[in-house]
Each structure stands twice: as structure tokens, then as C-alpha cells.
Amino acid sequence: MQIRTRWFQAGLVAVLALFAAPAGNAAGAGQAVYERECAQCHGAGGKGDGEEAQYLTTLPKDFRSGALDKRSDEFLAAVVAKGGPAKGLSDSMPAFPKLSKAELDAVIAYVRQLGRGGAGQPAK
User: Fold this and answer.
1) Which of 45, 69, 79, 114 is least buried, going by the fewest C-beta atoms within 10 A?
2) Dist CA 72 CA 54 (whole Å)
């Protein structure tokens, strides 16, 4: 019986370890989403200077300007998932409705990290 209990405890610890990632990992996971979906307009460092930015009517936000400090995670998630017009912002910000909640949370954490001068970028 003790062996079965120990195996159960070990299994439970392993499962919890998979789902209980530290908060800092959200930004790391968000980097892949950001690079795939956002960097072409917002730029690798979040300065709004991506390769596609020059073709947009409204330039993308420079995350390092402090513009995100006033916005809640819920607001940012709505802008990313539903596009800029859903929150009265630029038509140039497309919607990404196929991102999961986990991906949204991760990319928002990463963008906030960029806004604080993180991800290897110099502080503003």
C-alpha cells in the first residue's frame, strides 16, 4: 500500500509541476507568439518599427512609450483577439481570434516585458 501511495504522490507532484509554471515563464512563452504574430508590425523590440509598419496608415504602438501602462490585461486581450476597432483603436491592428487564452496571456506578459525594457532591449 505504501508503494502505491508513493507512486500516486510522485505522479501528482509531476502533474502539478507541469501546470504550475512560474509567472516569468508566461513572458518566455509569449515571445514565440509575439515573433510569429506581432513582430512584423511592432518590431522585434516592440518599438513599432517592424518591416510591415511602413505600409500601415497608423503606425504601431511603441510598447516602450508607456502606452500600455494605462491598459488592463483584459483590454489588451480584447485588442489582440478582436482587433483595434473592437476597442476604438486603429483599423491597422488586425484581430487574432485563433489565439488561445494561454497564448493571449503569454503574449500580453511578453509585451509588458518589452514595455519595461525587457527581453534584452534597452530601457526607455
Assistant:
1) 69
2) 28
